[in-house]
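Good day; I would like, with your permission, to put a structural problem before you. A protein sequence and the structure tokens that stand for its backbone fold form the material at issue. I would ask you to consider whether the tokens describe a fold that such a sequence might reasonably adopt. I set the record out below, with my sincere thanks for your time.
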Amino acid sequence: MRIDAHQHFWEFNPNRDTWIDDSMLVLQNNFLPKNLEKLLKENSFDGCIAVQADQSEEETNFLLQLSENNAFIKGVVGWVDLLDDNIEQSLIKFSSHKKFKGVRHIIQSESEGFMLQKEFLNGISKLKDFNLTYDILIYPNQLNEAYQLVQLFPEQKFVIDHIAKPPIKAGKIDKWAEDILKFSNCKNVYCKLSGIVTEANWKTWKADEFMSYLEVVFKTFGSKRLMFGSDWPVCLLAANYNEIVTLVEKYISNLPLNDQAAIMGKNALEFYNI
């Protein structure tokens, strides 16, 4: 089974979606399952994982409702307030839905120390009891803090989104590579091959620019802890869906077929308990 492990849905709301500014006009539209289903079929995908883009329980309910109406949405990574003293009540509520698979918070927008505050650690500590995963969305300067976090919870499944957004446009790699390589021994941590084109120049990127970054994540995580994600529709800022798939498939084309199948679906199925 082939799974797109990272994509988003939304009905564009300029008051809510303020991160979609005038440099991102292509994203100022509605992106719903009917728009994605055709792209999945064209690229032989069996399903996808819908990931939160807004920090609200309304967002989580929205994605779960879409998953009820569309069988190809195999799982939802939603948002809950991990800082809430009553976090367990939210987890009980959402976990009653069989497609609620994990949680994400947009940590890239938070200040230093957010991941290590006691309230957040308490929230993370509750996820394993509900068989839930955690998606880590960060910038490279937050990798050391994330490394401390995952070591505190060796039994909790984590996945780093978008290979931690290295500065591809600037052509810098050394510090990011040094920090992400630390995760090689963290067997509870996976990584998504997603979001890389939007870290390059949106207009002029070339496939060769990504090779050294991909080499680092393959060295760090191996084919058993990597998963493909399109990051649709955000990817449309720099590439169409087919281009994203081709970029990753071409890079892994020399791997054994079992490893290719793992990256393009099997790892996501196992990670998200599908």
Remarks:
- The chain has a mean pLDDT of 97.
- The chain has nine helices and eight strands.
